[in-house]
Amino acid sequence: MPSSGTSRSAVTPQLVATGSYQRGLESFILFGMSAVSISIVLEGERSQFRSREPMRGEVIVKVHETCQCDVLRLVHMHDIRYDNGNERSIELVGWTLFEGGPWKAGQEHRYPFEVAAPGFPPTYRGKLMSLTWRLAVTMYRDNEEVVVESLPFEMVSGKEAGLAVGAIPPADPAAVDDIPKTSLFMTAGLALGGVAVTGLGHIADSTFLFVTGIVVGALGLLFFLGSIMVFKDKKRGGNVQVDFVIGEHGEPECAVWTRPDAPIAKIEVKLVASELLRIGPRKNSAKRKARVFGAVITLAKVSPGFYRGPFPLRASDNVIWSLSPGTFGNISKAEVGWEATVEVTLSPPGIITKRAVVRVRPASGAGSAEEGD
Asked: Which of 243, 246, 276, 305 could form a disulfide bond with 171, CB atoms 3.0-4.6 angstroms apart?
């Protein structure tokens, strides 16, 4: 590295960006007793990047007083913030721009870089959490690393990545005739248990046991009768299965399977995306939830026992992805999640309800099921 004038040191290129729009962010820092100005100048037509899109620019160092820099690095920083005050910055990947040597007063050093934008997740700003990205420059001196400049940028996952939607667990259309009887047995057991406690109270001449048994038995009987009605509806409609399939135009569609001879009047699917935070220990955590999207789909009959309807979102820069940002501080769980609630209306009147967790991720590239985060 020359001791005066302008010096250049390039990062090994991964991808090459194009464009002429430039923006710089100046900062004046004191590093020990020496003063320098650091600028990140980013070339490109926008400050928004897609997954692994090329980012090209340069870091400009203007030296006002002679100082020592052991290492100068460029890094991708991922910032996670929750609305209860917890926040964390994670270094995803870094590149060395300069290693070892003094900077003398009056010098200007330019360090070009050509790097790929991060993969997943994209920038997200919600009600309970935010996930953002920035380019940062760090300096090492005496084994201490200091962030001396940052330049925020937006990460998006566009329509070219596609949209993959699936229920967890996946549907099993062959299970529509498998009607579980667990609730019948449980509620019948509750009713019989109440009767037994009542008898015990009568034998022991205990008013408390007698009354408790009557209450438990009555509740058990009510639940049992309700379970019989639900069981009868499921016998008519089947063990409803829900999942998502690819439609004729390559877009995801919600799919529901019922018994082929089910007397269906209407099938609706309520889709909700929510942010969830659990604050405190897992066994005794405070739950906070915020709804960020909701839609109702009415499904159409495709064939006996099979119904479909369009997923309400299409691949775009504004898709709400399923996310798990991470836990730290007093956060025991954090996620952006989807849930589907199927309501099958029968004729004569009857209702079958089925719920499923839904995963929404890119169909290809970073963040997809094949590649991971």
From this structure: 243
* 8-26 tens-digit pLDDT: 333 332 222 222 223 333 4
Whole-number Cα distances in Å, 94 to 84, 115, 212? 29, 10, 67
Instruction: Name the CATH topology of 6-156.
Output: Immunoglobulin-like (2.60.40)
DSSP label at residue 15: S
d(CA 365, CA 156) in angstroms, rounded, equals 13
Burial 310-324 (b: 16+ CB within 10 A, else e): ebebebeeebbbbbe
For every residue of 52-95, DSSP letters joined together read: T-EEEEEEEEEESS-EE-SEEEEEEEEEEEETTS-EEEEEEEEE
Domain boundaries, the chain: 6-156, 160-176+238-373, 180-237
Band the pLDDT of 215: cuts 50, 70, 90.
low
Exposure class string for 70-80: b at 16+ Cβ within 10 A, else e: eebbbbbbbbb
CB 168, CB 337: distance < 8 Å: no
pLDDT digits (tens, 9 = 90+) for 309-327: 999 988 776 789 999 988 8
Domain 160-176+238-373 has CATH 2.60.120: no
Q: How far apart are CA 271 and CA 355, in angstroms?
A: 10
Residue with tokens 């169909």: 363
Model confidence, pTM: 0.74
